[in-house]
Specification:
Shape: globular
Largest sheet: 6 strands, mixed
Number of strands: 17
CATH topology: Fumarylacetoacetate hydrolase, domain 2
Radius of gyration: 17 Å
Bound molecules: manganese (II) ion
Number of domains: 1
Order of helices and strands: EEEHEEEEEEEHHEEHEEHEEE
Distance between the termini: 38 Å
CATH class: Alpha Beta
Strand order of the largest sheet: 4-3-15-8-9-12
Helix content: 10-25%
CATH superfamily: Fumarylacetoacetase-like, C-terminal domain
Length: 227
């Protein structure tokens, strides 16, 4: 089929031992670990989860250089477990939610914190703080068929070898099945959708030349250099 402008490449994630996974949409959960909610000045009580998005082509592969983005002086790391949806659905019940998961990866929800904070203060959208170019570094997917469905395990990030973030999947305020179920009430989830599930405490700024090494126990690792 002809198109008015050239088609762009479909963003994909590599899959360990399989064909690449096409990325459709990237949903992100805000404040899903109590200690991080507190460090952001929020009440970590179990208020319903909320979501924001990044464009699919914000994906940056493992090992890549992330060009320091424009319009910020406060670029933050947020290490997160990423859930890849393999089977779509709406109003998915919690006890069926994991049937919709293709696999898991380690991701970074990179954030222009100064822009996000300004937006928060003025009641404006977060998009320019969260959804900028290359703002979603993500490692290779591991299939749930191979590794199961992690519900505990360390989530860690070092910068230049120094520990920065440390949490555990068992500390998620909203579990993976609960998050999928809740999100699927707002939108019909589609194969190819990713969910970044929130970050533990310890978010902080990075500068050019920093090397970020993230890991989720039982899932994998992710390395990014700030350019
Ligand atoms: Mn996040």
């Amino acid at each position: 089929m002809a198109h008015a402008i050239p088609l762009w490449p479909q963003p994909v994630l590599p899959v360990a031992g399989g064909d690449p996974f096409p990325v459709r949409r990237i949903y992100c959960v805000g404040r899903n670990y109590a200690a991080h909610a507190r460090e952001m000045g929020a009440d970590p009580d179990r208020e319903p989860p909320f979501f924001f998005m990044k464009p699919a082509d914000a994906i940056l592969p493992d090992g890549a250089v992330l060009p320091y983005p424009p319009k910020t002086a406060n670029l933050h790391h947020e290490i997160e477990l990423v859930v890849a949806i393999g089977r779509g659905g709406a109003d998915i019940p919690v006890d069926r939610a994991l049937d919709h998961v293709f696999g898991y990866a380690v991701g970074l929800d990179m954030t222009r914190r100064d822009l996000q904070n300004a937006a928060k203060k003025e009641g404006k959208p977060w998009d320019m703080g969260k959804g900028f170019d290359h703002s979603a570094p993500c490692g290779a997917l591991r299939r749930a068929a191979d590794i199961g469905h992690p519900d505990r395990g360390a989530v860690t990030l070092t910068v230049n070898g120094e520990p920065r973030q440390k949490g555990d999947l068992s500390d998620l305020i909203w579990s993976i099945p609960e998050t999928i179920a809740y999100l699927s009430g707002f939108v019909t989830l589609q194969p190819g959708d990713l969910i970044m599930t929130g970050t533990p405490e310890g978010v902080a700024a990075v500068t050019r030349g920093d090397v970020l090494e993230g890991a989720v126990e039982g899932v994998g690792t992710l390395t990014v250099t700030i350019g």
